[in-house]
Amino acid sequence: MKPFSQVRGPAISLPEANIDTDVIFPARFLVITASEGLGRYAFYDRRYDTAGNPQPDCVFNRPEMDGAPILVTGANFGCGSSREQAVWAIMGMGLTCIIAPSFGEIFAANCIRNGILTVCLDDKEIAKLHLYAAAGAALSVDLQGCAISVDGAIFPFAIAEHHRQALLNGWDETDTILAQDAGAIADFEGRQRMTQPWLYIQGESR
Asked: Which sequence ranges form a coiled-coil region, renumbered to this chain (predicted)?
């Protein structure tokens, strides 16, 4: 997983609550099992008409939003099914940070596992960020300092420290366990070697 420290760039404003994973990644594309190349299917029914032509009024299709790394959206973003393809599709669009009042629990966990920062702010702060994003202002998101800055305004945010460390270091779940519990694992293996040495015999049939 690629480490996340900070990101700066334009933000897509999508002020809508309860956007579920079927909107993010329609169910008919679940037959695609590869994680790469799913960005083209993200928000597909919003971005394209039934003939596959881009919808000119869709915020994702605006030229100035091409490659925008930040999404500011409504409450309960990513609710619905647990499909990890929704996160992979968002990654494929180039988004690395999503800011909302709240998230679907499984979706938020999948984001962290894939290196996407999810930030929760209250409704008033989100409303201000929507205004900045709609005006084309660049947002800076700093995970080291846990703050979002834009045009001199600062928006602090909170994140669980183990999630913060995982993102900063690019750790997956196994890496996190090894980093946080290496001493306890070594102690356990040392005791086990003493009491059950046959478990560590190499090259012999058991």
From this structure: none
